[in-house]
Amino acid sequence: MKRVVNTLCFMCSVRCPIQVEVENNQVLRIRGNPHVPAMNGGICPKAAAAIAGLNDNQRVRFPLIRTGERGSGQWKRVSWTEALDYTADRCKDIFDKYGAKSSIYCERANLMSDISKSFQKAIGSPNHFTHDTVCKGSINTACRSIIGYTDGQINADWTNAKHVVLYGRNVFESIEIKAMNSFISALENGTKLTYIDPRVTITAAKATDYKMIRPGGDLALNYALMHVIIEEKLYDAQYVRRWVEGFEELCSFVIPYTPQWAEKETGILAEEIVSLAREVSKVKPAVVFHYGYRGSHHPTETYFRRSILILNALMGSIESKGGLFIKKGLKDAGYKAGLKTFSSQKFPEMEDTRRFDGCGQDKFPIADPAHGVGFMLPHAILNEDPYPIKVLFAFRYDPLLSNPDYNTNLKALKKLDLIVASDVNFGGTTALADVVLPESFFLERSDPLQMGSSLKPAINRRTACVGPRFDTKPMWWIVKQLADRLGAGHYFPYETAEDIWNYQLTDLDIKIEDFDETGFVSLSDKAIWWDRNDGIKFKTPSAKIEVLSNLMESHGIPSLPPYEALDEKPGAFRLMCGRCVAHTNVMTQNNLYLNHLVPENRLWINDRRAKELGITNNDRILVESKAGKGEMCAYVTDMIHPEAAFMLHGFGHVEVDSKRSYGKGASDALFQERLHDKIGGSPALDHSWITVTKI
Amino acid sequence: MGDYIISTNPKRCIACHACEIACKSEKGLPLEVTLGKIVVLGPKMVNGNPNMTSVFVPCFHCEQAWCMESCPTEAIRRRKKDGLVYIIDSLCVGCKACITACPWHIPQWNVEAGKVVKCDLCMDLIDAGEEPVCVSVCPTNALEFCKPAELSNNTREAYGRGLLEKKLWATKVR
């Protein structure tokens, strides 16, 4: 009999609410959850390809132990008991000698993170990091330094915004359906979109105004915008007086950064900068300067993201209708408690609390330890700094292909004694693993409940729609089994997903059945806004927006250092990377339909520059940087700035088990140098220079 | 022509191809078969500004359906009640005459089945009171399924605005 299940997608990290139609343990169709108005039944191509992902024979189908060389694709199929015993025995041997701190656990942050963090604490290691560090570590740090909240705790009011400025934030190709749909309707109703990117994207094609900026020029543009806004008194004076700390210092700081100065740095005409500042100010505070996510990852990234938030502050748009809002949770909706977490249990004291990445400690004092700094992984392994690292739990995350400098990553991973990988598909790191513990596909598993903080908070549930196709398990089960064998099982008091849900709901008057009809429990039927005059609860020491940041200054990091001009390298291209609508990071390139839609990546280069180099469309080219070299195809176009080159992230898979994506395109990680933002810890993904030659 | 149309609002279309993939996935079609295609022009630079236009091309259910007329086994037929043109699978002998005849490349060769397959606007779903798969999954509601007379003013206006803006773009010098 047919039935429908309301659950959460996991083809990317957005977790859109979906409805799945099931019959005889098969998924027949997937639609957007009809109980969520802005979804309107829609799904993205990744969700549309989920059935192919579910039934894919090239998935990791059963537990494996490596028999050949690392990466050779030679495996022995084993039972779960054998795989888990093997993993635990190897861990015990290593921990006896080096301590549990010699293990690092990395994951794609999702509904499991609370349990993953508990696992590391339970076995006695301070080392846990998430993929967020690659994506938005510096955004997180910038947000906390200014308003005391992380980027995950704020959002944009897409529906009511009157003018939105996006910096490489390609909302129509990295889609979050609810937000995108609200925004596209707003655009229809006259909202203006200014899109700033050295490359034309689909978002650029939807923009009211597109500005082809020099790669890396975003910070200069923002300083010039501030200059105009302050000089012409276009800011929201009342809001600034009430909420902004350090405004006077900002005023004197931006004096030299005139639009004329910025013209050279950005390639955008001075009068255009002036007119943008005036345009946005007209509709303040219903303005969004968007703080994330892709694009413009340079060593100064924390300052760039801070500059965006400062612009929002000048517009009075933080916690304003049509601007940015601070997400509200259970307490704001009148509940006395939150979801109960596993990581808040009392764990044994660690003998050594130094982290492998020095996050929140010596190396990155103000970066967020909740995410860690994954960029430091190869450094810690190769240099045994601060101590030897021997074990990597790479759970649904692929540090080899996600982090810059593939060759160094590979060298580091090969040095490890034990790699335990858990994923749905074979990825670069899975292929190097000693033992593979296959995770069930998201349609086959229930996961811990998700707190959906927002203007109208809700709790969402992912529920298994069908039984596992292969011999796979949910991650919370795998982690508990490992913990059991390492003598820490009692920190995971559950047997089933229902047990986990009940545990999370302990302190709340909400029952599991309450989720059955719609897949979520709504906690407030009206949007919760704080009073802009007196009620905004900024979490900074001054309870204000800190342009002069206590967090930074107290660690000797200047809030407003002088601008450093962009370097130039004639003959070379600044490599940028990004994503398309078909793929999620390095996870989906082998999916049957998505692989067919976008099978490989090509290097975008400007037509004029290509002509000088004698390169035409689809030519095979050799791409070289300080970090590595590789071959791919060229895409010659007038849609990219002459100084920039662009490639899609996530290709260049060389793991033999992923037969569709094997050897197609090149990995951006291969060319990206080991450069990073030393404050927030994000890798400078868009900062490497490459040279290009025709083969 | 059939009673129904699928119109594209190019202002809303983001060229994500969810329509095509959902169709293939739900119907279990081989990769090469795309029953309703989204044809995207761009993004490309037009006078220094990015431009993109999309049109969804499902079967038009032509008044004089050449696929139907060319079929030697009468496997392709028209439904009386709404004029939809469809294939009776068991009667198709795989001669591909319809593929040659259709100027819109609508009938497609299903190599796995050795037969032709074509878009019938998901007539089984229409009969059940639902929309075709491609329309129901569209994440931006760029596709609209209706009878021509019901085509929303919204969509008509969007077309109009799009054309108007292009004209303005053409004269704007950067």
Automatic annotation (TrEMBL), chain A:
Residues 2-58 form the 4Fe-4S Mo/W bis-MGD-type domain. One of its GO terms (molecular function) is 4 iron, 4 sulfur cluster binding. Keywords: 4Fe-4S, Iron, Iron-sulfur, Metal-binding, Molybdenum, Oxidoreductase, Signal. It comes from Desulfosarcina ovata subsp. ovata. Belongs to the prokaryotic molybdopterin-containing oxidoreductase family. Its cofactor is Mo-bis(molybdopterin guanine dinucleotide). PANTHER family: TETRATHIONATE REDUCTASE SUBUNIT A, TRIMETHYLAMINE-N-OXIDE REDUCTASE. This is Thiosulfate reductase.
Automatic annotation (TrEMBL), chain B:
Pfam families: Fer4_11, Fer4_4. Residues 4-34, 52-81, 83-112 form the 4Fe-4S ferredoxin-type domain. GO terms for molecular function: 4 iron, 4 sulfur cluster binding; metal ion binding. InterPro entries: 4Fe4S_Fe-S-bd (IPR017896), 4Fe4S_Fe_S_CS (IPR017900), ET_IronSulfur_Cluster-Binding (IPR050954). Keywords: 4Fe-4S, Electron transport, Iron, Iron-sulfur, Metal-binding, Repeat, Transport. This is 4Fe-4S ferredoxin. It comes from Desulfosarcina ovata subsp. ovata.
